[in-house]
Write a structure and sequence with these properties.
CATH superfamily: Electron Transport, Fmn-binding Protein, Chain A
Strand content: 25-35%
Shape: globular
Helix content: 25-40%
CATH topology: Pnp Oxidase, Chain A
Number of helices: 4
Radius of gyration: 15 Å
Order of helices and strands: HEEEHEEHHE
Protein name: Nitroreductase family deazaflavin-dependent oxidoreductase
Distance between the termini: 43 Å
Oligomer: single chain
Structural class: alpha+beta
Length: 151
């Protein structure tokens, strides 16, 4: 079971080192990173995860590099299912906090188009196909994002 150890080691490196550095970059508002702030679905604790997001009309498009089983995403989905009043999470992007109220799957071509340019070329080369739209509370209709299905 060496793959299990390798994967655990890689994820520990990301969490312990890489995430701290990219979170600091996101907080400064410099660089490509944003923070997603969620509440743990079991613990109730607040968690921050650095991500690269594509700002679009009405919110942000994210690419699920590690699939839909990652904790930050599962926390948002759980908050949406609970149907609590208020936002299901927050995005901190370029020094501003944006409350998120919905998550919508995005077709691969629309997700790639949202990232555009070099980032889209890299995502395409890496065969990334899982994208989600994070709708900002009070934002314009998400259908403004080309290819996004209606809510």
């Amino acid at each position: 079971m060496p793959m299990g150890r390798i994967k655990r080691g890689w994820l520990a490196f990301i969490k312990g080192g890489l995430n701290r550095a990219t979170a600091a970059s996101a907080r400064s508002g410099v660089g490509p990173f944003a923070l997603i702030r969620t509440t743990g679905r079991k613990s109730g604790r607040t968690f921050e995860t650095p991500l690269v997001l594509a700002p679009v009309a009405g919110g942000f498009v994210c690419e699920l590099t590690y699939g839909d089983g990652v904790n930050w995403y599962r926390n948002l989905v759980a908050a949406a299912r609970r149907g609590d009043d208020g936002p299901i999470g927050f995005v901190e992007h370029r020094g501003r906090e944006h409350p998120i109220d919905r998550i919508v799957p995005v077709p691969p071509e629309a997700g790639l188009a949202a990232f555009g340019g070099v980032r889209a070329l890299i995502l395409r080369a890496l065969r990334r196909r899982e994208f989600r739209f994070l709708h900002v509370v009070g934002g314009p209709d998400p259908r403004a994002v080309r290819g996004l299905p209606p809510l």
